[in-house]
Design goal:
Elements: E1 2-5, H1 9-17, E2 27-30, E3 36-38, E4 41-43, H2 45-55, H3 71-78, H4 89-103, H5 108-118, E5 124-127, E6 136-139, E7 142-145, H6 146-152, E8 159-163, H7 171-179, E9 182-185, H8 190-198, H9 203-207, E10 211-215, E11 218-219, E12 222-223, H10 228-234, H11 241-247, E13 254-258, E14 273-277, H12 284-301
Parallel strand pairs: 1-2, 1-9, 2-5, 9-10, 10-13, 13-14
Antiparallel strand pairs: 3-4, 6-7, 6-8, 11-12
The structure holds guanosine-5'-diphosphate.
Guanosine-5'-diphosphate binds at residues 6-10, 12, 34, 46, 187-189, 193, 215, 217, 223-226, 228, 279-281.
Length: 302
């Protein structure tokens, strides 16, 4: 099972999938367009959430590590260093470890492997690329890193463009894609979380040869959370599951939408089959139910 993931909706689904599949059966390719250097360390918000979810230590309140403390962050603030994200001590230890490995010549893929091995994780967790390709948002307040848009500006500016930079596909990502029969695209922001993964050189072409199932992060015309609406409008896409299907239409085979969505099969582009499920994951029980549905659909394909 191979999952493409951002940092909120897809990790919730991952929690459910891990109750079904053994870790060794799961590979995740995570978005790194959100990555940002803070206080000398590389912070990889989506990659880390995937790691913490797999390790069973994620805090779904702030997407860092459960039980973390924030004294270093507060001390830095009192020294005049305002960090772009609120970072806990346990989380920061991962960033320090990773950045040290990078400075000694490791790739992000190597560093992620070392972190996962230290945490004894069986799942394979891969950054989408080893290149640093930060996503920027072009707004009426200027062009800014996506983290500044989300945190400093609280998603308020109007958006004219989401700029994802192309990264080179790593050997590890290529091999993972070659070895899988099907790919799950979690309910993540299509433009800013999945978009950067699709922008990795050669990705869309490989996905065309796989069975790809996506879960919509939108019900009717409302994203469940976050700026997906603004970002989709900036691409000229409708803010709906149809917009999600259109964005993925060159490779998507199946789309899971919520029972409450008003989209029907005839609305979808040719070649995409519609499935319905409860897609809002308030907790692990709903994640498990949605994961069951996806595993069931995939079993019928093989
Ligand atoms: P980010 O990296 O923090 O932006 O997180 P993602 O892109 O992975 O997730 C954000 C997207 O997930 C938003 O567009 C939400 O609408 C969607 N989302 C969040 N929770 C859920 C959920 O429980 N179910 C579904 N279907 N979508 C969700």
């Amino acid at each position: 099972m191979l999952l493409l993931s951002g940092g909120t909706g897809s990790p919730k689904l991952l929690g459910g999938l891990l109750l079904y599949c053994s870790g060794a059966q799961v590979t995740v390719i995570a978005n790194t367009g959100d990555d940002i250097w803070i206080s000398g360390n590389l912070v990889c918000p989506d990659l880390d959430t995937v790691i913490y979810t797999t390790a069973g230590i994620v805090s779904e309140r702030w997407w860092g590590i459960n039980g973390d403390t924030f004294r270093t962050h507060e001390r830095l603030a009192s020294l005049g260093q305002k960090e772009a994200l609120i970072i806990g001590e346990l989380d920061r230890a991962i960033h320090i470890f990773r950045s040290d490995l990078l400075r000694r010549g490791a790739t992000l893929t190597d560093a992620t492997h070392t972190i996962c091995a230290s945490l004894e994780l069986a799942a394979k967790i891969l950054p989408m690329t080893d290149d640093f390709v930060p996503t920027t948002i072009v707004t009426d307040k200027g062009e800014m890193h996506i983290q500044d848009f989300l945190v400093k500006y609280q998603q308020a500016p109007s958006v004219s463009q989401v700029r994802c930079r192309p990264g080179k596909m790593t050997k590890e990502v290529e091999t993972a894609l070659e070895e899988c029969r099907s790919v799950v695209i979690g309910p993540s922001n299509p433009i800013s979380s999945i978009g950067p993964i699709l922008n990795v050189n050669g990705m869309r072409k490989i996905l065309k040869d796989r069975f790809v199932i996506g879960v919509s992060p939108i019900i009717r015309s409302e994203p469940i959370s976050g700026p997906a609406g603004k970002f989709m409008e900036s691409r000229g896409l409708p803010v709906s599951s149809l917009g999600v299907a259109e964005f993925y239409s060159d490779f998507l085979d199946a789309l899971v939408v919520d029972h409450r969505d008003d989209i029907s099969q005839s609305d979808l582009p040719d070649g995409i089959e519609l499935f319905r499920a409860d897609t809002i994951m308030y907790g692990i029980e709903q994640s498990k139910k949605l994961a069951t549905e996806i595993v069931r659909i995939l079993a019928h394909q093989s």
